[in-house]
Amino acid sequence: MTQRVSLSRAARLAGVTRAELQRRIRKGELTTFEGELDIADLLRVYPSVTLEKTGKLEQVERIKADALPRSHDADTALPSPEVLVARIRSLGEALAQKAAQADAQAALLDELRERLAGGAGADALRAWLDARRGEIDTLPPEDARAGLLAKDTFLRLMSASIKIIPSGHEFFVDGTESILEAAVRAGVRLGYGCASGNCGECKARVVSGEVTRIAEHDYVLSEREKQMGYMLTCSNTAVTDLVLEASEARTTADLPQQDIRAQIRKLEPEGEDLLLLHVQTPRTQTLRFMAGQRARLTLEDGAVRELPIASCPCDGRHLQFSVRRGDDAFGAHLFEHRATREMIRVQGPAGDFVLREEATEPAVFVAIGDGIAPIKSLIEHAISIDHIEAFHLYWTVDRPDGHYHQRWCRALKETLDNFAFTPLVGAGTSDLLAMLQSDLPAPDGLRYYIAGPTTAVEDIGGALAAAGIPAERISMEGLG
After folding, report:
1. Is cis: bond before 349, omega within 30 of 0?
2. 431: three-class secondary structure by DSSP
3. Which end of the chain, N or C, is less surrounded by CB atoms within 10 Å?
4. Judging by DSSP bridges, how do beta strands 36-38 and 4-6 pair with one another?
């Protein structure tokens, strides 16, 4: 019988990234059926199965831990004893059912053999059945398929897979985290409000699978909703693999406008005229935004500036912005006072410069000066969701010491073998275009994300269009 697994689970079993599997699928090395991979096909390409984390999957986990902002370590923690016991019980029931099915199939084969006994022309078929039965009964312990299924069983104890309908998005719940926390970490934009069980905005319906409550909530589900399988994703975790019916923000228009009273946590000077501003929102008011969007910031004295968010939506409580001194009251206040713990109002999000998540082909990111802020957010989100096959970042600045996210770029390059970084100084439109044409094979099959001063961005976008790149493959963000 053909056994299939989802793309996300196949990546975990093989110890590689989803992007690696996507690349092999595009090349025809692997085939899918309704979004799933055949286990035999997976073993053909990845014949070595171990329980240790290996390869690119380990690299991605390390870069997420080292280079991306984190508010908790839920993904590295063991499940709680209650959840672990529930998962063991559920797996035990599933294995018992499989054992019963196997016994029934064995009995069916025995009956078939008896019915064939003495029948004309049936001797060859009976001999074949006996031979195949003997092969199955004497499978070696190190059989590759058995090893893969053993690893899958182990992983199901540690984490559960969640599939959202109708979108088809899939992610894993690890450790002690809630379904909502896991979704945010994976870049899946489920609807939610307070994230603490008060508002009911994160309500979703369990289509299949089992959940367990890990936190109390004040919101009251009606009896009808309970009968239909509704629960709050902020207060429940997955016991088994789940299929959930839930609302998602698919476009920027689906995100609510938010007004959050947050706090300045840290101001990092990067040279004489640049600060990295770190803002933390309350636990009950995580900012929902898409990578590449902007937020309007207002200080207590009324000074305002709208800035691109430089951090990943996977951690909406910890926001990062790049602030130039400028000649306005906002820059003057931050540079003169350098006050942390000061309250700051965050409104947004705004903007349509976002990642095309449905596109898995390699992507090229071009940052001009402080255009690195939205580009950084896009790249961190792309790594978080693990869909894009490869990344190449070109970052041009005016001065040799202008690459203020150099450590972040280096960490990505050293950890991910599908990430390339080209730092540039004083590169103009013609220089960038020439470099893109020399570095990139088949440039018309790539995705381009360009951010920086409006004039420079439009020049590069126009040059790419003139070179034959389809307009739908070019996303641009002008920063004034």
Report:
1. yes
2. helix
3. N
4. antiparallel
Give the strand order in the sheet containing 4-6: 4-6, 36-38, 32-33
Q: What is the mean pLDDT of residues 367-377?
A: 97
The percentage of the chain sitting over the pLDDT mark of 70, rounded to a whole number, equals 79
What pLDDT shows up at residue 74? Answer: 42
Checking if the pLDDT of 266 tops 80, the result is: yes
Residue type, 191: G
Contacts of 188 (CB under 8 A, 6+ apart): 164, 169, 171, 248, 385
Helix and strand element counts for the chain (H, E) = 14, 21
Q: Are strands 447-452 and 159-165 parallel, antiparallel or unpaired?
A: unpaired
Amino acid present at 166: P
Sign of CA dihedral 59, 316, 339, 402: positive
CA distance linking residue 278 with residue 261, whole number of Å? 14
Peptide bond into 423 cis (omega under 30): no
DSSP class of residue 334? Answer: H
CA–CA distance, 367 with 450 (Å, rounded to integer): 6
Instruction: Please report the DSSP string for 8-70 in residue order.
Output: HHHHHHHTS-HHHHHHHHHHTSS-EETTEEEHHHHHHH-----SS--HHHHHHHHHHHHHS--
Pairing between strand 391-397 and 363-368? parallel
How far is the C-alpha of 169 from the C-alpha of 30, rounded, in Å?
A: 20
pLDDT greater at residue 392 or residue 145:
392
**pTM here?**
0.77
State how far the Cα of 137 lies from the Cα of 366, in Å rounded to an integer: 58
Q: For position 293, what pLDDT does the model report?
A: 97
Q: Cβ(160)–Cβ(239) under 8 Å? A: yes
Q: Where does residue 58 fall: left (phi above 0), alpha (psi -120 to 50 degrees), or beta otherwise? A: alpha
β-pair partners for 392: 364, 420
> Residue holding tokens 């029934």?
104
